[in-house]
Give the backbone structure.
Amino acid sequence: MAFFLEVLTGGLLTGVLYSLVALGFVLIFKASGVFNFAQGAMVLFAALFFVGFIDLGVPVVLSAILTIAVMILLAYLIERLVLSHLVNQEAISLFMATIGISYFLDGFGQTIWGSDIRRLDIGLPQDAFVFGASVLGDDIFVNELDVVAAVVAGALVAVLAVFFSKTKIGRALRAVADDHQAAMSVGIPLRSIWMIVWAVAGIVGLVAGIMWGAKLGVQFSLSLVALKALPVLILGGFTSVPGAIVGGLMIGAGEKLAEVYLGPVIGGAIEDWFAYMLAMIFLLFRPQGLFGEKIIERI
Amino acid sequence: MREFNETLLSVENISLSFGAVKALTNISFEIKKGEVLAIIGPNGAGKTSMLNVINGFYHPQEGVITFRGEKRRQMKPYDAARQGIARTFQNVALFKGMSTLDNIMTGRNLKMKSNILSAAFYLGPAKREEIEHRAVVEEIIDFLEIQAIRKTPVGRLPYGLQKRVELGRALAAEPDLLLLDEPMAGMNLEEKQDMSRFILDVNDQFGTTIALIEHDMGVVMDISDRVVVLDYGRKLADGTPDEVKNNQEVIEAYLGVGH
Amino acid sequence: MSDVQAAIERYDTFPKILLRNAETMGEKTAYREKDLGIWQSWTWAETADNVRALACGLAAMGLKRGDKIGIVGSNRPRLYWVFAAAQSLGAVPVPAYQDAVAEEVAYVLNHADARMVVCEDQEQVDKVLSVMEELPALEAILYEDDRGMRHYDQEYLHYYDTVQEKGRAFDRDNPDFFLKEVAAGKGEDVAVMVYTSGTTGRPKGVMHSHRALIESARLAAEFEGLDPSDEVLSYLPMAWIGDHFFSYAQHLIIGYTVNCPESADTVTADLKDIGPTYYFAPPAVFESILTQIHIRMEDAGKFKRWLFDTFMKVADRVGVDILEGRPVPLKDRLLYALGEILVYGPLKNNLGMTRIRRIFTGGAAMGPDVFKFFRSIGINLKQLYGQTECCAYACMQANGDVYADTVGPAAPGCEVLIDSETGEVMIKSPGTFVGYYKNEKSTKETVNDEGWIHTGDAGIIADNGHLKIIDRAKDVGRLRDGSLFAPQYIENKLKFFSYIREAVAHGHDRDYVTAFINIDINAVGNWAERNGIGYSGYTDLATRKEVYDLIQEAIESVNRDLAADADLAGSQIRRFLILHKELDADDGELTRTRKVRRVVINERYGNLIEALYSGADHVAVEAQVTFEDGRSGTIKADLSIRDVKTFEPLRKAS
């Protein structure tokens, strides 16, 4: 029992990081209808800048602020140079553009900071600690870093939730997501809104990048995390923030449990494909995802 | 008969084309402050294009728009909204996933002052401002008698009510000029009567100038002070409902020559 | 001054009680109203102050003892204040139904000789103005809401606030006036005049004294253990005695809070906001809630529906026993507790019934299944029986002594007997009315010399001592073979089916029973959509073969039920048709409280009834209808007539 709980918590905590990456996708998709292939690249890009600043001797907090500034600037440039020229184009063109952005970010980041694996050590704890003394007589070990990540992610989601539901900008974001033309007619500046969304997605990416980076080191494979976000989105629905969170948790927990309990039976490496399998099953039975809007055509 | 002297907006020699297709040809007319102006004409006459030019969705190739004495060739929708032009759309362009309340709140967008940072964290002044604007929106909800659907996502509302919410959103901006694109399309008789009453009340109580496109001639004749008739992108006539009704060209355009 | 004080402290009129409340619980909330999205409230002290200002204003305008003042509008605190203000001066408030057409309002105001009328808003003012010429006695119109009123320049139109302002000035100039006027009021004075909805003939003005209202309200409040912490939502017409009883009489006597909804359309949402503890609704409301629940469940996902069905079965089995504190096996108790978390709790929360301590229904019979549904999910729904003429109640069910098919034993202070010859229910109550206004003849016919009121209902006293209403006394008829025909009983059984909104059974002096059916456009419309049947409107849907099949099934199941009861087996429905239009109060076919007006229907649809008793399998109709905007038009349709299977009686009649 204790072992099961340990695997489960470990999985859930990894899931939190999947959720963070998926969240970045959802934000941009909701506000602009763009499927942002570059979200993974943004995670890597942000992490690279962050670790780069630290390696230059900049204090941690200042590095974070500088990186946020970089992500905002990036959002501005993306809007200016790419998106604004593609207004009212097909979704597929915008998607292609984000693939371009993705390659550019991967390349540009590494051009500046090099392609070595960098250790990110900002004092986040790496030890496993004993959680809740014992459950049914056995100790449970939980990685402290994972717990910190979960708390940070939770706080971020809470802030975003308030931002979206209570503020003028949040409302404007939702308005833009619903109907571009109507939003313009009430005086919502589309371009600023897109810039804000990309900047927020960049900041979410930064948080994800720091957490992953602290765990695995900052390296190119970070941008592949984006690939794990895809099944998360299929599970949770492309337009749902809670969906991204629950989807991430389910995939994180599911793949760990599958690896440990099914691994010995059907061979290892289940962790690598489990998420995609689950996504496929969902596509068959609930294509709109757990929380996606069900589209019913009334006759 | 009401008298209006002050010009709020004038369009002069506006021509608009999409490639080789001429949507509007050399159109001039004025909207007087405080009046209800109807723009009518058969399908494809260029009515919606005219509204789109006024609020900046379309940029005419020729002509000048003067709004409150300020001349310009073209406008951006954002600028139009900021200067007091609000509008509704022929096919209802609401934010379907958002509640009635939130939809109308977006109409207050330009009236809200708090900056991005304080708004982002929902700090004191932003919260106070939010409450202030909510009070204005509640007045509009009361005015339009849509209390019962305050929290309902507008996508779930019947069409007639959506049109009313859309009017509410436009009113929230406290516009000087309100453009209504077929506010009564697809409504039954009772809904049309309600909408007519709301339009006249808006005009009467807030002094808002209204330019509307409408197909229902009965409604147009009842509620408008002046009528501009377009046909094939040209202006056919411009005058009081009675003058327009008796204008030979208008009769022909509507009934076809020879009837 | 001490005389005045002593007179006031007799607390034998409502204005005196209001002054007492302002004294003893001045800071407690008396009224709440949702306005511009926010619940506004008024304490008892503020209420008394406002009433005083209004009373003085009305006095300054010339309202005198014995004058009548009309009230036309929906439930608003400021309109309730008119009752107290008028009564302070010894004038008699006369509420009229706010959804009545201008002629009906005119009849009431005219018959009551109203000198003034307080209207809620522009709509009601327009209504009164349109019949101004027929109202020679009317001198002033007040309006509560000034929206849209600024272009009205008639000098007899007054804004409520202005009247109050004038009143405050008048009060300053005549500081003794108000209390003296209040003190001059006596318990036997007429407190209010409410017009009966009039199932037959013209409405009659029922006069009630302060004493009758106070006494019956007090007895009922003691019986139910009401206290000042109770909350009610007043949403039923102010002109109906029930609302006056709950939202005015008991409200003043107990001091609980009356909450007024934002508008008629927002009642469900407001109910959720407030969560009243004490509530009254006619059976139709419960029926429509249940229909709504069923519709939503049919649209819900499989899992949700399974959850609902499973736990409703549990509730059906043990819910009522748990509510009434009878022993229930532990397993069922646990299942019910789980159901409370998963189904009943959220459902009650959605209906705004989480805090309900008692909830009454009455005025018409309720389907036993509807009744049981609410009780089984833990809502203490009870029945009462009464009339406008006896301050709303004469019988009432006590906690733990509740049955679906009875209306309870005689309430405290009341007596009930059944006339042995006619089977009519006779009641005696401390709340017996003073008389009908300007109609001595009807008063004599209704109350006999010993004070018994003829209710006009047919009933029996059941073995448990409860009164059981079968039908209107004059409606109970006999088939040609002499067997009993109680149309309302049959109609209620039909109306339990969510697809049937209204039914009218025929059979008196006939060989067999037939029925008109009105389908429920929501329920049937929803069903049609799910089954891919397109339709353009009510008439189109009502004439569909598939819909006839659906209704036929329902009727056959009613027949099966009737066959089980020896006395009623002969009343099984042989033939039916679905009416081409909805029966409507605007067309005079229903009363405002949605009771069927048989005389009107028999007259208007005579040819349809004949067709039901001929061999024809269809009949053509053309009918006048009044649309919601007041215009009228004609509908033409060809209605099919269906034969229905009947069943052998299980037992022979004794």
Residues 292 and 523 of chain C are 8 Å apart (CA to CA).
